[in-house]
Inverse folding.
């Protein structure tokens, strides 16, 4: 984005906004911090100077991005030490390089000190991930990780709120007056149902918690409220409890139905199957109702924790990995300034449309394309594999041309800055995601396409209708 200095007059600001077909800062907008605004039916971000813009970011911009799995060896750090000598010299080069390609934001997991580098009066904004749910899982379930293992935090546990407030106070409160903060991601890719981390429903996962766990008690309370009596519950769930107390004292309860991963479910087939099998429909409704309770608690508690520590910046939520059940998004939009999600599809329009019906501004937290000609295995990781770097460049341009026509989109963050090690990072990913190689060599064809598309982004977004 182009920053407006104090020397620029109001008329100058109006001239800049006029280039986007926008108006001056709306009365009531808090000055000095990023916000959203809807203009002629299209959502935009507004920078601290009052200028409309779109967040164009790259994630994981770090001097020592990725160590080889099971080691402390970072090939990218070794290359940067040899090339730049110091981290400050690398930051200066990396930040200016990103801005020269038309990027204005550091996405998740980036070195926020790059925001201090200035070029032609511009600086990068940043959008940190503060991992509130992940912090709870890490502390309460030793050896488990929310993202890697798909462990959903027990949001009914009072400790969840206490940990969220503690982390937000430590991470967000010191930055509450920092004009470089675009907003806060509260987590990344939490599990909202059956997915690549397991086929279990969230409801059955919570029923598998210890009997005294607040989350298990909440699950049983909900089921008891939804059923007139235990025989009806037994009929749907194919169980044989004598009474509700038996369910409360039981261990894990086996799901009567095993569904496909959320992103593989065909909703037309789901509806037809449920019509033919009322018991299955009742079980699915139970799962959706519990997901709604989880989402309501998660987004309320985390948003309140962030805003108590930092009332000045936006809350972007937990970067959905896929479109979750509708009740989850319905709960999220009540508390978030912008709904965030990751989308590795070739064509992002179906995903954008699925979220757009809720009326909130949207930000894509991750998307990417991998090249088969990179010399990297590309054996693990999300997103399409294309033949060449030219195909990566073309895919980037096409993806954003389609995405920016959607009126709710306010930003997009490419995953990621540097390629992953061929031996695999901590989870085994070994893919060609970078805008630079492990030797800090620029993918010129890709970044040329990025520069061109980033320069056109506001025009593409302003134009009505699909391209």
């Amino acid at each position: 984005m182009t920053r407006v200095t104090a020397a620029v007059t109001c008329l100058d600001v109006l001239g800049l906004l006029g280039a986007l077909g926008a108006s001056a800062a709306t009365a009531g907008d808090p000055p000095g911090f990023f916000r959203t605004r809807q203009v002629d039916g299209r959502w935009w971000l507004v920078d601290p100077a009052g200028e409309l813009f779109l967040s164009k970011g790259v994630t994981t911009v770090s001097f020592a991005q990725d160590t080889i799995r099971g080691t402390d060896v970072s090939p990218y750090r070794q290359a940067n030490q040899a090339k730049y000598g110091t981290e400050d010299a690398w930051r200066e080069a990396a930040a200016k390089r990103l801005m020269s390609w038309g990027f204005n934001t550091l996405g998740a997991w980036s070195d926020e000190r790059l925001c201090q580098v200035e070029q032609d009066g511009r600086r990068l904004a940043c959008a940190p991930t503060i991992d509130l749910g992940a912090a709870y899982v890490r502390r309460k379930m030793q050896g488990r990780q929310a993202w890697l293992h798909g462990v959903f935090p027990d949001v009914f546990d009072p400790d969840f709120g206490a940990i969220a407030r503690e982390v937000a106070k430590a991470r967000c409160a010191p930055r509450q007056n920092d004009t470089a903060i675009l907003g806060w991601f509260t987590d990344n890719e939490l599990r909202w149902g059956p997915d690549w981390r397991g086929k279990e429903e969230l409801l059955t996962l919570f029923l598998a918690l210890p009997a005294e766990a607040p989350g298990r008690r909440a699950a049983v309370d909900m089921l008891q409220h939804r059923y007139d009596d235990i025989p009806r519950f037994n009929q749907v769930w194919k169980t044989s409890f004598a009474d509700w107390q038996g369910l409360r004292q039981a261990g894990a309860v086996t799901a009567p139905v095993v569904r496909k991963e959320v992103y593989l479910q065909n909703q037309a087939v789901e509806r037809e199957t449920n019509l033919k099998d009322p018991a299955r429909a009742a079980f699915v409704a139970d799962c959706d109702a519990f997901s709604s309770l989880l989402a309501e608690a998660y987004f309320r508690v985390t948003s309140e924790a962030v805003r108590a520590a930092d009332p000045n910046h936006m809350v972007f939520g937990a970067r959905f990995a896929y479109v979750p059940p509708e009740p989850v998004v319905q709960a999220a939009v009540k508390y978030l300034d912008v709904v965030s999600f990751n989308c590795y599809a070739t064509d992002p329009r179906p995903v954008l449309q699925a979220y757009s019906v809720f009326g909130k501004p949207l930000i894509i937290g991750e998307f990417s394309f991998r090249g088969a000609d990179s010399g990297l295995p590309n054996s693990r990781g999300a997103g399409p594999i294309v033949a060449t770097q030219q195909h990566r460049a073309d895919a980037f341009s096409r993806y954003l041309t389609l995405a920016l026509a959607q009126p709710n989109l306010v930003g997009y963050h490419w995953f990621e800055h540097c390629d992953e090690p061929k031996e695999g990072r901590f989870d085994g990913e070994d893919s060609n995601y970078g805008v630079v190689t492990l030797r800090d060599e620029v993918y010129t064809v890709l970044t040329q396409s990025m520069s061109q598309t980033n320069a056109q982004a506001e025009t593409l977004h302003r134009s009505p209708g699909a391209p």
Summary: The chain has two domains: 10-195+298-462, 202-291. The longest strand covers residues 409-414.
